[in-house]
Design a protein that fits this description.
It is a single chain. The protein is built from ten helices and eight strands. It is an alpha/beta fold. It has a single domain (about 5-200), classed as Rossmann fold, CATH 3.40.50.300. Strands 2-6-1-7-8 form a five-stranded parallel sheet, with helices on both faces. Strands 3-4-5 form a three-stranded antiparallel sheet. Strand 4 (about 75-80) and strand 5 form a beta hairpin.
Length: about 230
């Protein structure tokens, strides 16, 4: 059997990774893994359990006691429960760093993620897929966009979800999260030298997807058999 084709995709929040990676996986008919959804699921569990989020040891103990995986339809599950959009509320987004910045939590979740993709053709996205989870992935991609463009996209997504905050506040929140993600001790966000870097400010998601699919097919002939 040919070596698995792993497409590892990193980039800051709001750069379009989830949309792009999911469609790349669909077009190539390979496994899709949203690593960030696992962090969100763990965070939801902490909030539900009333864990003291300032207590790093308690946070790690709670997360490591959880079973976090995915249903056949791609929905993340926490102890067997599909969570849907409940992991994407502002409350969960604001607290996700409690898990992401906890080295014990990261080690546990990275092991789960590596086990999920082991032996499979897969496309996965997150903050450390190219550096920690799959550092030897045959195709590494880094999707980027300015904080201003990502704020505009977030405002568009806000429609129908109540009153949106001022765009200046959204930009400030994005920059604060970027700083946390970049300066994290383990699994910090960075561009690897061998990554395919794509600035998405001025190109559409379809164009980005086409670029990545073409590169994957160029690097791995057996992916054509999936189509």
């Amino acid at each position: 059997m040919a070596n698995p084709m792993v497409i590892a995709m990193d980039g800051p929040a709001g750069a379009g990774k989830s949309t792009v990676c999911k469609e790349v996986a669909r077009r190539l008919n390979i496994l899709f893994l949203d690593t960030g959804a696992m962090y969100r699921a763990a965070t939801l569990g902490l909030v539900r359990d009333g864990i003291d989020l300032d207590n790093a040891e308690a946070v790690a103990n709670d997360v490591r006691a959880r079973r976090i995986d995915f249903a056949a339809d791609g929905q993340v599950r926490l102890d067997g429960e599909e969570l849907g959009e409940r992991i994407r509320t502002p409350e969960i987004t604001a607290e996700i760093y409690r898990v992401a910045n906890n080295n014990d939590c990261r080690a546990y979740l990275v092991a789960l993620q590596q086990n999920i993709v082991r032996g499979h053709d897969a496309a996965l996205e997150g903050r450390d897929t190219t550096t920690v989870i799959c550092p030897f992935a045959p195709l590494k991609v880094y999707l980027d966009a300015s904080a201003e463009e990502r704020a505009r996209r977030r405002l568009t997504q806000w429609q129908g979800q109540g009153e949106a905050p001022p765009i200046e506040q959204i930009i400030a929140d994005i920059k604060q999260r970027d700083e946390r993600d970049t300066n994290r001790d383990v699994g910090g966000l960075r561009v690897t030298e061998d990554a395919m870097y794509i600035d998405t400010d001025s190109i559409s998601s379809d164009e980005v997807i086409d670029m990545i699919v073409a590169e994957a097919l160029k690097r791995c002939d057996h992916l054509r058999d999936h189509q």
